[in-house]
Amino acid sequence: MILTVDEAGRALADPACYADERRLHDALALLRRESPVHRVEAPGYNPFWAVTRHADIMEVEREHEVFLNAPRPLLATAEFDEINRQRQEQGIALRTLIHMDDPDHRVIRAIGADWFRPRAMRALEPRVRELARRYVDRMVEFGGECDFARQVAVHFPLYVILSLLGLPESDFDRMLKLTQELFGGDDDELQRGTTSEEKVEVLLDFFAYFQGLTEARRARPTDDLASAIANARVDGEPLNDFDTASYYVIVATAGHDTTSAVIAGGLHALVEHPDQLERLRAEPGLMPLAVDEMIRWVTPVKEFMRTAARDYELHGVTIPEGDSLLLSYPSANRDEDVFKDPFAFDVGRDPNKHLAFGFGVHYCLGAALARIEVRAFFEELVPRLGSIELAGTPESIATTFVGGLKRLPVRYSLV
């Protein structure tokens, strides 16, 4: 299918496009080549500029005082943008780190920062490796065939992040369902409903759950991240209910869904590139590089939006004050000017300057944890893997924000 540049731009507002890798990357390659800063007018959406080159996205991320997260941090329909604006005015809107700019962003980010520093990650690593072993053992219990995405990949990182928060295991299934409804809001199979009101209901359910958690941790503080969030103070005052719940939401969801997408997509890449699997078997020391290549390959966060605080010239195009930009991370991570043979899956790729975790002041808080989880899982799986092949057709989530495979049927032998 031959696309025009305008059709390629509109594809970025089509959730189904992200479930069709060839269509997505054809559109992104065309935009990088012919219109790397491209104005998009898509039906049902407020206009935005699609930014597709690695260097231009880096420039926008560096200029965080010019390009702001608020008021439009994510691509959503015009209807949902309006509902969100109204809820912001009422003080009852989701307000996570990805919605904030400095100085609020810097202060709120610091609340959880210590829990994701190298020292804390080293202390957590034995638990992560124990859980990785448990889920590889579970693959043995499945008898040599499973839907890896649904039966393994979604559960392992969820268990890790909710254990870090200190949530009871009895609540994990509820959190999984809410997370999938939140990020799968455009997917016919995962969404709760099709209306903006039904999508807002998912957030309200998150808020209701976490409000109860906040009350419990304030009444009886514990030694977990949930307690640190519940009892945090800014200028001597506790966070309000919505900011507290928003913090939980971003940790619980972003800390789970992105990593599960990398684990499922990483295994799919190894199945599709058996030479790279053999290379990893023969050279286990390549695993840190392989992890970053899996992260680049999958790029689970598809976009963030920024809004120009003043007129700004980007790649020869003037972005007027108040206009929004979509930063396309899958495009940056296939940029021919940055990556040698970008459409090759290379477990030894070095350097690997991917932008899957963002860049600058908004760099992903949980990046180190994600790398530890992916590395622990594949260091447990690869040495025990005798053979593996697809047992059906993989399927991806329809989304414009966060996603990856929702089905990965595989047949395998494990020792």
TrEMBL record:
Signal sequence range: none
GO terms, molecular function: cholest-4-en-3-one 26-monooxygenase activity; heme binding; iron ion binding; steroid hydroxylase activity
InterPro entries documented for this protein: Cyt_P450, Cyt_P450_B, Cyt_P450_CS, Cyt_P450_sf
Keyword Metal-binding: yes
Biological process per Gene Ontology, one example term: cholesterol catabolic process
Source organism superkingdom: Bacteria
Pfam families, A to Z: p450
Keywords: Heme, Iron, Metal-binding, Monooxygenase, Oxidoreductase
Family per record: Belongs to the cytochrome P450 family.
UniProt protein name: Cytochrome P450
Species for this entry: Actinomadura litoris
